[in-house]
């Protein structure tokens, strides 16, 4: 590199470095002290997530570097109590944490030390006992993802989720069957700010009730499966801007492992604010006429984005009928109401 290049303003170098991958930043950082200082500036890492594995091997200098970068997002693999305490003491300002494989639920009590934590994801793990007790105090959360937590106690877990009244985004991918209507209604009533919802549907015999996504104006059910939600739900109903509203206010809905006729043709009708819908089918159906997707689209006036994978052969959005690849396809709807397919496959579901 010419000597003149080193005299470029720091602002220019920072703009250049923003185009580099995390790995490339590391290589540039090791080339000279000045670049090391620039690379470690927090603006370089604002959109990066730090992956923490074998946490016990990280030395004091490593944590000092992460503090200089003001790292705010981490992915944690197999951490015990000692490791979590180290993370909390070194990076107390974390706003987003993803946990792969929970080793000790007691260690997760450390999450309460992250006062700025807004996004939490727990995935690919046997659901630890008392996880609900860990989640319930995290009232500051706005985004929660529970993915593939095998053996989770549904009612207790949903009861804890229902106490997180500030949630705007919920990804609940647990179990092999859909949540019952009453559990959903109790949860929906407690989450007045929810805008984005992703559910793993799974197999079910028959069709879920038409009002599955309909927020009841009143709730008088006293069955055992919703008893655990009643106390929390009743407290939160008064917190809604309009307690008698039946529209959930969702703007994004994702259905994983879905298969018709789990939801009825009118099931999505109450979601009049929905702007984006993703449906990831479990299998292709032999009978295209059983697909409810086309009916749903006619009931969603605000919908502008659609993602579908493994759809029925007979479905097509604004084009000839054709089978869809397993990777799926994404459509956008223009002002005139016609659907246009994007060139590449959509992003995989969370």
From TrEMBL:
<dbReference type="InterPro" id="IPR001810">
    <property type="entry name" value="F-box_dom"/>
</dbReference>
<dbReference type="InterPro" id="IPR036047">
    <property type="entry name" value="F-box-like_dom_sf"/>
</dbReference>
<dbReference type="Pfam" id="PF12937">
    <property type="entry name" value="F-box-like"/>
</dbReference>
<protein>
    <recommendedName>
        <fullName>F-box domain-containing protein</fullName>
    </recommendedName>
</protein>
<feature type="domain" description="F-box">
    <location>
        <begin position="2"/>
        <end position="48"/>
    </location>
</feature>
<feature type="region of interest" description="Disordered">
    <location>
        <begin position="324"/>
        <end position="350"/>
    </location>
</feature>
<dbReference type="InterPro" id="IPR032675">
    <property type="entry name" value="LRR_dom_sf"/>
</dbReference>
